[in-house]
Amino acid sequence: MNIKPVPYICEMLTLSSRGQLMPPSPIRKLVPYAEAAKKKGFKVYHLNIGQPDIETPEQILNAVRHADFKVLEYSHSAGNESYRRKLVTYYKKAGIEVDHTQIIVTTGGSEAILFGFMACLDPGDEVIIPEPFYANYNGFAVAAGVKVVPVTSHIESGFALPPIAAFEQLVTPKTKAILICNPNNPTGYLYSREEMETLKLIVKKHNLYLFSDEAYREFSYVGEPMSAMQLAGIEENVILMDTISKRYSACGGRIGALVTKNQHVLDGVMKFAQARLSPPSFAQILGEAAVDLPDNYFDGTKAEYKKRRDVLVKRLNEMEGVTCPNPGGAFYAMARLPIDDCDKFCQWLLEDFSYNGATVMLAPATGFYGTPGLGKNEVRLAYVLNVNDLNKAMDCLQEALKVYPGKK
Amino acid sequence: MNIKPVPYICEMLTLSSRGQLMPPSPIRKLVPYAEAAKKKGFKVYHLNIGQPDIETPEQILNAVRHADFKVLEYSHSAGNESYRRKLVTYYKKAGIEVDHTQIIVTTGGSEAILFGFMACLDPGDEVIIPEPFYANYNGFAVAAGVKVVPVTSHIESGFALPPIAAFEQLVTPKTKAILICNPNNPTGYLYSREEMETLKLIVKKHNLYLFSDEAYREFSYVGEPMSAMQLAGIEENVILMDTISKRYSACGGRIGALVTKNQHVLDGVMKFAQARLSPPSFAQILGEAAVDLPDNYFDGTKAEYKKRRDVLVKRLNEMEGVTCPNPGGAFYAMARLPIDDCDKFCQWLLEDFSYNGATVMLAPATGFYGTPGLGKNEVRLAYVLNVNDLNKAMDCLQEALKVYPGKK
Fold first, then answer.
1. In this predicted structure, what is the pLDDT of residue B9?
2. Residue B7: is its pLDDT beyond 60?
3. How many CB atoms lie within 10 A of CB B339?
4. Is A193 helix (H, G, I), strand (E, B) or coil?
5. Closest by alpha carbon to A12, among B209, B82, B158, B372?
6. What pLDDT is stored for residue B5 in this prediction?
7. Strand-pair category, B378-382 with B363-364
């Protein structure tokens, strides 16, 4: 032994910068307050998180239950070929023409986003994202060392795509991508065909990647959504990030996909996919079975979500001082409330308020904005409860707004 | 519209540097040659990949088949609490004392490695790894921007831990961690208690993280393995990276765990875990059921692997010019062959050789070394086939070595 043990100084062991910078989940930070409220015996209506209550179709759960194999093996790193071939059919029905080699099955939509960032963007590169945006984009950006540049959309215009000039102002030599979520989480906004064509122009002019998160494709209430994959002339730029989580109420399966016609990106992403060996096997079976669900499957879920949306938006706009644009898709709505601070308000709802033995959990909008200070009087509501519960939740909110000390 | 479309110049869309640097899987690169051999009608004995043929216990598959739920929900980001509490029992039996808050369930061991690198190491930081090492560590290091510094272990000493002086020579101000795999993939080497104590001294002296990949814990043939979690005095430094993949032949489940007593690391990792929402739900059910397998479950699998190891090592050492140390654990062996170049040889086996209508697929050792040029006459063999097939595979190899044009 030629070294001498020295005293152990734990302080020197540090987290990485990104480990420190990594934002905690803004949605989950209120969880301890919700748990405390439940311990006190209150019913908590959860409108804070995109966990659908719609049942996972029995038929696809049965596919997993009855799967016949002896060894739970690694799948192909890009996902089972049989599943990818099935997905070609699914995408065809959605108006997206791809072949199975252009699909890489991922561990949830989350991994599709991470792989896209990792393979396409270098540390320091910038990605422009219309805000408010899905908060976890921040997390994947920190993991990849990428800078998120927010371009603000406004509640007054129902969170429409910001004007092209607003994008132009933000483009720098470091800009390498635009990321959209369509239909949008958290706003529920559905981009029009014209807005998609506008995005195409910006993408083309500056030769950017267009990352398109289309997790909520089936939930559109104002006509068919246009996929970024349908934009002619920027086929090499578009990277679709997808997931079965919301589509089939299968969030726990952790199955998504990265889809692109850009072979270089596929080759790059494939190396990340190989490093982590394979996506989960059980839920690939489930996802494959889901493509065989009857064509009218989504009619039912869509009608249910639309009914809830109508109730939620109506109830909100009837409350004094509340504005809620009517969302065209997904199962979220953003509302402006007559309050001082949404973080305080959401915590107060759980800590200090109840009505008829219940309260409501909302997501403060500040977590969805990249620009500090924005969204302070807004909240996101996920309409993942049945109409009856949704009405009771709205009763709570209505009463809460009457008595909240920070009312404005 | 205030911008004018410009011609689309696809060449400007580039992959990220890490997307380009990311190494393709060295094990999977021979797959097209294996497929071609099969198309020609040859039987290919797969000793190239750590996919066990041992059946996944029926009892744990049944737990998934009979799981009763209506909605396949996200689990807790750290994994189901019921599973984490069960894992405490598992670890206790393995001589590791932790509580459930010190366990974060991950999507395979792969994600535990990625999370550990991401949360603890900054881009440019160095991690020392005894080589030959599991090739995918390279991939996770590229993803995290971390530099792998190999310290060479040698076939002459059976791939024992390199001497402490060899580590000392490589420590720089950038060194932040040592990563070991014990029992080792690809060498099968099982670190002795004395070697673990040596590691402790280095870790303590330089205040490094000790990442310990213990995927093969149960497969040790020379006494009980010592876990890094059992090293007294460096509790804050040790991060265990674990997986159920090999333990229960459940590779496709994609369930692993990151375990540590360092609360800062747990907090940091938890933020990455929240960003990706949750680990797969189905396989958590499987993993939870696995902890209830009878205590003698591993006796059977271990006895089977030991029998295979004995056959494999004996057969290899009987071949002229072949050296194969007897591995103490896991289900891999590294052998030195009388050949010019293992990459060429492994490809030649698939492209140009057959014996009794069959050939054998091996993993070239070059992919497991970080130092260029090392391992050129070594191969890794995974003994994941039954003894009968293993003997036939050894017959092939024996004949191949007689006729290989690049014989040395």
1. 42
2. no
3. 23
4. helix
5. B209
6. 41
7. antiparallel
Q: How far is CA A387 from the centre of its chain?
A: 23
Helix (H, G, I), strand (E, B) or coil at B152: strand
Q: How far is B36 from chain A (nearest CA, A)?
A: 17
Task: Examine the pLDDT at A71 and tell me if it is beyond 90.
Answer: yes
Q: Please report residues of B whose CB lies closer than 8 A to that of A252.
A: 72-75, 278, 280-282
The DSSP secondary-structure symbol of A57 reads P
Residues β-bridged to residue A407 = A339
- Among the partner-chain residues A15, A233, A280, the one whose CB lies closest to the CB of B253 is A280
Q: So what's the pLDDT on residue A7?
A: 39
Identity at B68, one-letter amino acid code: D
**Which residue do the tokens 């904005």 mark?**
A369
CA separation for the pair B329, B302 (Å, rounded): 9
Which chain B residues are closer than 8 Å to A139 by Cβ? 271-272, 274-276
- For chain B, the C-alpha Rg in angstroms (whole number) is 22
At residue B274, does pLDDT exceed 60? yes
The minimum CA-CA distance between A267 and chain B, rounded to whole Å, is 9
In chain B, DSSP finds a helix count (H) and a strand count (E) of 13, 12
Tokens representing A279 are: 């996506």
Token duo for residue B19:
């997307």
User: Is the Cβ pair B207, A75 closer than 8 Å?
Assistant: no
Per CB-CB distance under 8 Å, the chain A contacts of B236 are 10, 13
pTM: 0.95
> B132: cis peptide before it, omega within 30°?
yes
3-state secondary structure of A87: helix
Map out the domains of chain B with their CATH numbers. Answer: 10-55+298-403 (3.90.1150.10), 69-290 (3.40.640.10)
Question: Which stretch of DSSP H or E encloses residue B265?
Answer: helix B263-275
pLDDT of residue A8: 39
What does the pLDDT average to over A270-279?
96
Distance CA(B164)–CA(A329), nearest Å, equals: 61
| A194 → chain B, closest CA residue | B1
- ipTM score for this prediction: 0.94
Q: In which element (H, E) is residue B175 found?
A: strand B175-181
Q: Which residue of B has its CA nearest to A201?
A: B5
**How many CA atoms lie less than 13 Å away from B64 in the CB half-sphere?**
32
For residue B26, the distance in angstroms to the closest alpha carbon of chain A comes to: 10
In a mutagenesis test of the A interface, which of B71, B248, B262 is the best target, namely the one with the most A β-carbons within 10 Å?
B71
Contact A287, A244 (CB under 8 A): yes
